[in-house]
Amino acid sequence: MESTSCLAVDYFFLSNIYERDSRLPIVPAQAAGDAKVIGYVVRRIAYAVPILIGVNIITFVLFFVVNSPDDMARLQLGERRVTQEAIEKWKEDRGYDKPLIWNADAKATKKIRETIFFLKSIRLFMFDFGQSDSGRDIGYDISQRMWPSLAIALPVFLVGLLLTITLALIVAFFRGTYLDTWTVVLCVAMMSVSSLFYIIGGQYLIGKLLHLVPISGFDSGLASAKFIVLPVVVGVIGGLGSGTRWYRTIFLEEINKDYVRTARAKGLSENVVLRVHVLRNALIPILTGVVVVLPQLFLGSLITEAFFGIPGLGSYTIDAIQRQDFAIVRAMVFLGSVLYIIGLLLTDISYTVVDPRVRLR
Fold it and tell me: Which of 44, 82, 97, 307 has its CB surrounded by the most CB atoms within 10 Å?
């Protein structure tokens, strides 16, 4: 009897708790996961602000240690005996007539706000790049020049990634054989050769001797395809050595883990083990390596574009450095830093997709 009454009391309390909890709002796991991702993204953006400020300060200091505003004015005016009045007029028109970092003659916050650094930097965080020292709209130039850079960098990235991963899987399949040994030797040899060798050799062999494609130049629309082929081939071949060796190391590290031995013990073939298990679990280090080249997709390759005459962002940056155009150099460094931070953020988020065990905090 006592036992029955106890059970009745327990049932009474449990039913009340159930009815009370059933009226509470239920938060799905997906909503909680989305909230974590949003919170993580907001924190990373907040962390990125001081990093971008630091990059901007370093760029500013390094540039003006080498060049003063007077030197920039003389170079832009292009006259040997330019007058001081012309220099002062050039500096005033472009905002270089103020102190660099600290305005001792101003009051309160104007000591910082009325400086070249503040006036030239604050607009960057709103992605207003302003005008170059030669008077051109930097934002417009970037929007026009990014497409030739992407036309070369994107095929090099995709084709190179596919080839290097495929070759690395083949070498890992034949690990410990002569094929593995000689492939590693070849990869080290290719890594030891300068990229200029591939560029000059490709231009001489494919462009001059075989006359398959033009050596340099660019065109608009579909006519640009013949100018893109050679830089893409050179870029892919130049990255085969380092990429194949890097992914081979990753795959060999995964092959020696317990889950691979378990897969083999279940009777799976070596081909299935490599393609299904090893490749999937090696995606995290692969993603980490991929993020390094993301800024290059937009900013272009300085050497490649200069040698092949591609009017992309890489050659745009080289020309700005040669002309000592601080506005363009600052904008390109800032844009590269932003793209790199975005790449790191996307990589962290993609980790959770590739490996469910990874959680954002």
Answer: 307
Same domain membership, residue 157 and residue 104:
no
Strand partners, 137: 131
Q: Would residue 80 count as lying in a domain?
A: yes
Q: At what angle do helices 178-192 and 225-255 cross, to 10 degrees?
A: 130
Q: Are residues 281 and 147 in the same domain?
A: yes
Q: Based on the fold, state whether residues 186 and 268 are members of the same structural domain.
A: yes
| pTM of model > 0.85 | no
* The domain boundary residue, chosen from 126, 157, 180: 126
CATH number, position 240: 1.10.3720.10
Q: Please report, in tens digits, the pLDDT of each residue of the chain (361 residues total).
A: 444 444 443 434 434 433 444 444 444 555 555 677 788 888 888 888 888 888 888 888 888 877 788 888 887 787 667 888 888 888 888 888 888 888 887 787 888 888 888 888 888 888 888 888 888 899 999 999 999 999 999 999 999 999 999 999 999 889 889 999 999 999 999 999 988 899 999 999 998 898 899 988 888 888 888 999 999 999 999 999 999 999 999 999 888 888 888 888 888 888 888 888 888 888 888 877 777 777 777 777 888 888 898 999 888 988 888 888 888 988 998 988 888 888 888 877 777 776 666 666 6
Query: Are 180 and 98 members of one domain?
Result: no
319 lies in which domain range? 141-354
223 and 277 assigned to the same domain: yes
Distances (CA, A) of 113 to 56, 68, 120, 233, 296: 16, 20, 10, 49, 33
